[in-house]
Amino acid sequence: MCKTLFVMQLSINHFIEIRSLNLKPGTREEFHRLYIEEALPLLKRWDFDVVAHGPSLYDENSYYVIRRFDSLAQREQMEDAYYASDDWRKGPREAMLALIENYTDIVLELDEVTVQGLRK
To answer: What residues have CB less than 8 Å from 2, skipping those under 6 apart?
Structure first.
């Protein structure tokens, strides 16, 4: 007797935040250094899933950060806790904010395959 097992793969969606930062002219190299050396290790310690980050290919004053969350509520909770923490406030906050003119967040719901495709 032959049995066939059908496995249905459920599509798991994630919420992706794309942060587009406009930096003050001539500061992108310093911002990138601060991000790699200070902010990224801190975000990892706080269990943020940083999918990708780096200088924009479009212009010399732009930078992007892509982060993944399981829900919009998780995003809000994690960001509220992180940005209110002493780790951020007494850490790289002042140096990084001094280099930013403004930023925009875009939040999308994407499937796992697409999220993995965004990873560097």
So the answer is: none
